[in-house]
Amino acid sequence: MTTPPPSANTLDLRPLMFETFVCTLAVMSFVALVGPLARKLGLAPWQAGAAVTVGGIAWMLAARPWGIASDRHGRRRILLGGLAGFALSYGSLCLFIVLALHWTLPTLFAFAGIVLLRGLAGGFYAAVPACTAALVADHVEAQRRAAALAGLGAASAIGMVIGPGLAGLLATHGLVLPLLVTGALPWSPCWRSGAGCRARRRQPNRGAALAIGDRRLRRPLAVGFVAMFSVTVAQITVGFFALDRLRLDSADAARVAGIALTAVGVALILAQLLVRRLDWPPPRLIRVGGLVAAIGFAAVCFADSPPLLWLAFFVAAAGMGWVFPAVSALNANAVRAEEQGAAAGTLVAVHGFGLISGPLLGTLLPNWTAAPLRAGRSAAGAGGVLAEPTDAPVETRRSTMTAVDLLLVATLLAALLAWWIPALPGHRGLLALASTLALGAGLYAAWDDRWQAGVGAFAGFSLLLGACLRRKPERGLPFRTGSLYGLLVLLAIAALYLFPVAPLPAPRQPYAVGVRDFELDDPSRPGLLGAPAGQPRRLLVRAWYPARPIAGAAPRHYFDPGEARSTARGFGEILGFPPLLTYLKHLRTNSYPDAPLRDDSARLPVVFYSHGYSAFAGGNWTLMEELASHGYAVYAIQHSGDASPTRLPDGTLLPMDPGLVEHLRRAAHDGLPQAMRQGYVSDDLDQRLDGQLHTALDLPAPANRAVNLSAPVWLADRLFVHDRLQAGEVPDRVADLVAASDFAHTGEMGMSFGGSTTGAVCMVDRRCAAAVNLDGGDFDFAPFDSDLPAPLLMLHADLGNFYRLFGIEPPARPRSFNDFSYERFEHAGQRQDIHRLVLRDSAHAGLTDNPLFIRRPLRDGLLGSAPTEVLIQAPNALVLGFFDHYLRGRANDFPQAQMARFPAWLTRYDNSAVRDWWLAKPEAQRLALRQRIDEMKRRKTGLDLP
């Protein structure tokens, strides 16, 4: 016998609202404090995130069991138990953290304790929304349930708003006080719990629990998930929207995002209070609320200022404030009285799944200008097409996935959902269709150079095969096969996540950037570096410059399709995986091909650039854009033969020199020669000097290729290009740019082997006014034991990582491989215009654009573990500040001002140990060594260099 539905409101909501308010306030207070607490306890950011996430997972998993238990054992008993458990576990969590702060517990122990207690608190907290919603269904008539549930929603929203504010206010007196206060608060509802639910008794449910796939729950569960998912996606993207669309700095973006989220809380409160005064049925509330939310989310896409963004979020949240209580009422109205607990718990679990999956996918698929719009569309189920605004040419999207990536992920998730829920209407057709689409999307993406999608294609094929072989659905949930397919889908998403295709970060200066490619030929040097005999030295030059934007113009891609098939694949072949970088053809830069030169451009400061050995001209694209956006003309030379395959503007392909390929393969197989190991990682400076002198003169072939063959060719390339540009002997397509450039005093720059070339250029070319070496050695040996005639920025990657490349544990004070270059030994470390700096936790290849293309933790060993922003922005800031100071003569407090932006990552390198070592030697020994050095330099360069 079931209890008939109530005919009148017999419930006092005030105790339930108070319980909801206090519990939500406590949870949100912890979320606000977790970052500072993690820093105090020495926890990593991911550990802080895990402490928050585990509570959400426990809440999601425990909600349905709590609801079922309330059906069988009584609402008041279960609610009291849940509240007491939450108060005890949350209070224990706060007390544990206080003790951990006081006693300085080991990091691992502190992390384990926080995760355990936070998980327990989340699990007990799940009883509150499940039981309170069921109580409302027990005691409130159907047509008034939405209004009653809106009261609970308003109480929760008030807790969401007040919790972080209260924690922040109390934290002004230290982190212990907010922990003690919020840890004690959850005990207050326990004394009055159930006071409002004694007026009506209900027959316990002793039968089977309500099934998850019950047809009656499908509609409210689907709407509830989509609504919660949409809200959390929008919330997680608002900060990125402020950064990328509104073009704010990090501090302003955080402030704008915080106000937007506060507006969400206020709107939820007001909207749910309004619902209490309306007499609308749940379906009408959902339709109207969804429409209002869709309007708000769509308005976000048109917001071009913080106030408009706040207003749009307020409107969207107001609509959702009508949807949430209506969904809960719809859920309650769909089942019998003895099933209310199970129904409420199931809906809470679905909300929890939306809360967890929303932030996850919101960070995986962040097309920041379109994510709120997508969320609004899904929330409202809106038909038709909403047009997105056209950005100005200098703005770019922030999307980490291609459209096919998004289709692949969506279809894989749909297929996985159909596999896990056999009771879903039409699940066989959905499974077959979604897995087929996933297979097709994955195969197409892999064919289109998005090789990471191959994992998704395999997952789609596996799901399709399972659909064909599955004779009948398993009873209950298919945990074994579902977990296997879930793992495959997770791996497929991870492959796309770890290799993003987000556009390059926009330069900090708002000027548009143009890019042009052109060819220069030197007939006086035929047949070099694998070129056919008699073929002139053909060079690709790529120029970045301040441009005048054209409405509707689109930035070029990192690689065009031809470069993806040649340059990118060639570079991948060197690393043993040809497709490695081909997917970068889907990535947009901020540079507009052949854009007109800015009208006010005249005597633009010029920087010449050379790439690393076997690399390509665009390897430091973000740095080039940063310089060009500040008014520089940057000319990058691709040293054909020693570079990845070079595609000239006319389509001609210049392959890599087979000798280079053989040299690199031998080096990878045999390791570096003993002379180089001694010269670059020995602790003894005498051994270092001897090893480097042997490296300069005595390496056997092919190990000596870079020193004996490549170094002089690259130096001649740089001088030739400079001379031709200064003479104006260039193709017509760049004549205006060249005419507007100042070639009398130039900046010289290079990455890796290109950095070595830069030092050689400045030793022989008096037009060099400033030099930058990005983690390059000195393979020309012209600056060896010599005073460089120009100021120098020598930026090292983490020197400890350099030692590890040789399999050697770095010493306490690692030495630089350029200790003997750019200054005479007797005053090494004393020149004020020689700046030697080290970027902590970076690797050699991390001083290029590469950190933007591979995410942590996969990139840590290859590129360094420093944050991507540091790896990209720190070199950019240093190089720009250096050239501004020494090439433009600006008083910008270089390098102190630039280092102050990255105090934990940039350190000076003191080279005075070379001076002390040298001056400690007897004069006769110094004379003998200097004669040996001078003889080496004469043999290497043919010049008597100082």
UniProtKB/TrEMBL annotation:
Tell me yes or no: is Transmembrane helix among this UniProt entry's keywords.
yes
Domain Major facilitator superfamily (MFS) profile per the UniProt entry, residue ranges: 12-426
Give the Gene Ontology MF terms in alphabetical order.
Answer: transmembrane transporter activity
Which N-terminal stretch is annotated as signal sequence? none
**Entry's transmembrane regions:** 16-38, 44-66, 78-103, 109-136, 148-169, 175-194, 221-242, 254-273, 285-303, 309-330, 342-365, 403-422, 429-447, 453-470, 482-499
Q: Which InterPro entries does the record match to this protein?
A: AB_hydrolase_fold, MFS, MFS_dom, MFS_trans_sf
Keyword Chloroplast among record annotations: no
- Source organism (scientific name): Pseudomonas aeruginosa
Q: Which SUPFAM superfamilies match?
A: alpha/beta-Hydrolases (SSF53474), MFS general substrate transporter (SSF103473)
What are the record keywords, sorted? Membrane, Transmembrane, Transmembrane helix
Q: What is this protein called?
A: Tetracycline resistance protein, class C
